[in-house]
Amino acid sequence: MSWSKSLIKLATYEVETLQKRLAEIRDRRTAAELKLLMLEAQGQAELANGAGDPMAGLYRTAFLEALRARKMEAQGEIDAILVEELGARDALGEAFETQKKYEQVSEAARRVEAKEQARRETAALDELGLRKLAR
After folding, report:
1. To 10 degrees, what angle do helices 2-50 and 56-134 make?
2. Over the stretch 58-70, which tens digit does the pLDDT of each residue have?
3. Which pLDDT tens digit goes with each residue over 26-39?
4. Looking at residue 6, what is its pLDDT?
5. How far apart are CA 19 and CA 98, in angstroms?
6. What pLDDT shows up at residue 51?
7. What are phi and psi of 11, to 5 degrees?
8. 11 close to 99: Cβ distance less than 8 angstroms
9. CA separation (Å) from 123 to 79, 92, 112, 127, 134?
10. Where are the chain's structural domains?
11. What is the rounded CA–CA span in Å between residue 44 and residue 60?
12. What is the C-alpha to C-alpha distance for residues 106 and 108, in angstroms, rounded to an integer?
């Protein structure tokens, strides 16, 4: 049964690797979302700060355009990470399915072996009983 244990061990390793990858992707997504929130907060702070200064109006337009560009870039990064996360989730699901298939095949092989062992024991006991009866 070493082949089944090896397959299950490899499948388990693959699942663990994919779980770590998915966790890293989630961390990157969280960081990107936090970056977007910080940009929004920075924009709000600049608008509030510049409300009292008439000269700030000159710079506000350029600042808001640059802020909008940075926010679009951050949102694009989040969208790309979401696609990657979806792919990682699919790969993890497939790895789980493969692991379960290997476990089920191993269990079925174990049951077949147990039935065969029981059949051999019954045959041996029957032969022993026939020998005893023949004496």
Report:
1. 160
2. 778 888 899 999 9
3. 999 999 999 999 99
4. 86
5. 15
6. 67
7. -65, -40
8. yes
9. 66, 46, 16, 6, 16
10. 2-99
11. 11
12. 5
